[in-house]
Amino acid sequence: MELGVAYDGSYVFGVRRQRPETLRAEPVQLGEVGRVIEHQAHRVLVIERPAALPACRQVGVDLCLCRLVEIGQIESVAVDAVTDADHVPSRVIVRYRLARSLFDMNTLTQLYGVRNGLDVDNLDVTTDEEIDTFLTQARKGRGPLDPGPQYDLRANSAWLYTRPDFAKLHMRVLDGWRTIGVDPIIAASSFANLHTYINQAWEVGIENCTRGLQLRGVTRAQLLECIMHAQMSGGMRGLECVFRALGVVLTQWVDRPEPAEWPDGWAPDMAPFYCGLDPTTKELTDQDKRNIVEWYERTINWIPPRVEFLAKHEPRSLKSTRARWEGCFRGALPKQMMPYFMLRHNTVTGNPGGLREAVLLAKAWGITHNYIVNTIVQGAYYFTGMERLDMVAEAVGDVL
């Protein structure tokens, strides 16, 4: 293999040549500026920019690349694939059209890199090879014989084959979440998404998230605590969907020997849940009410308005629903998962009072700021649109 440099009067290209018989084409053919610069090179790298780019014209370059990032992460370029029948490369070839007003060597810094086979820095070029790599990983990520819905494969196909640039913009958002110090079991959002899918009665999502959680080492008991929490808002409709999606899965569940990895300080602890209800009577006693009120004052220094409302108008419901809330967890999940589920649910439903309670309880039970905010942001991003954060700012901006 020989290294050569070809200069066309305005651009300098570094060309790594291969033998013609290897590429099944002539090694290098360069034309003048303003016309397509054609070659059959293994790699081409723009190594110098002229003082002024050609006016009113574009320069096209066919690049035979091992992977797109070798040429330098040029974001703002228009691209189409080379499909000429007589153009036979050894690897995937793409055509870059470098417009005068857009080309800037300052944009050559790699920011996002490759994610699951996709060059996330390059919004303008997405090759079939990139798409194939991404979708193969989606198909085989949980094992080639996994019987799950794998909607990750189907949903991502919808935009990778139509608007791959927008898919890559989505992945840039996910990249930001990986850099804020949130552990994978929370950053992946499978628990929170499962909770939301139960409330939304979406069976495909319920099964998909459940299988992902099983791979992360979540136990059957931990999964059931999540399901029971979701039932408190999803009702019997949610349970019917859980039955249809997970009936077989739950009966055949096998806990993995490696336990799930939780953030530092997250651990089961049931004592803080209990306020001291009298179990010998259905009625809300005066002491029961005082205990509920004092629990809120002691724990989050705020009393949700529903407490006084129910105590006045339907006291038995205040006591019974409080007892159900306390009994949702049984010591399998970390206690922090209770406010975590509350953060997601009240963000999605747009309940400012519920969200305020969730934030205060999350802080009281040791969830750090980055986890609280990211849980809220993910809920808005995936299910409502970022406009939901206007409500969030008004409801909890003063306590974050």
Strand elements, count: 8
Large-scale geometry: globular
Largest sheet: 3 strands, antiparallel
Question: Strand portion, in percent?
Answer: 5-15%
The span between the termini is: 59 Å
Output the radius of gyration: 28 Å
Helix/strand order, N-terminal first: EEHEEEEEEHHHHHHHHHHHHHH
What is the total domain count? 4
Characterise the protein shown here.
The chain has 400 residues and is mainly α. The chain folds into four domains: 2-110, no CATH class; 128-177, no CATH class; 184-266 and 332-396, no CATH class; 271-327, no CATH class. The protein has 15 helices and eight strands. A three-stranded antiparallel beta sheet has the order 1-2-3, with no helix packed on it. A hairpin with a 4-residue loop joins β1 (2-7) and β2.
List the helices and strands and how they pair.
Blueprint: E1 2-7, E2 12-17, H1 20-23, E3 43-48, E4 59-64, E5 78-81, E6 93-98, E7 114-115, E8 118-119, H2 128-140, H3 151-160, H4 164-177, H5 184-187, H6 190-200, H7 203-215, H8 220-251, H9 286-299, H10 305-313, H11 315-327, H12 337-349, H13 352-364, H14 369-383, H15 388-396
Helix pairs in contact: 2-3, 6-7, 6-8, 6-12, 7-8, 10-11, 12-13, 12-14, 13-15
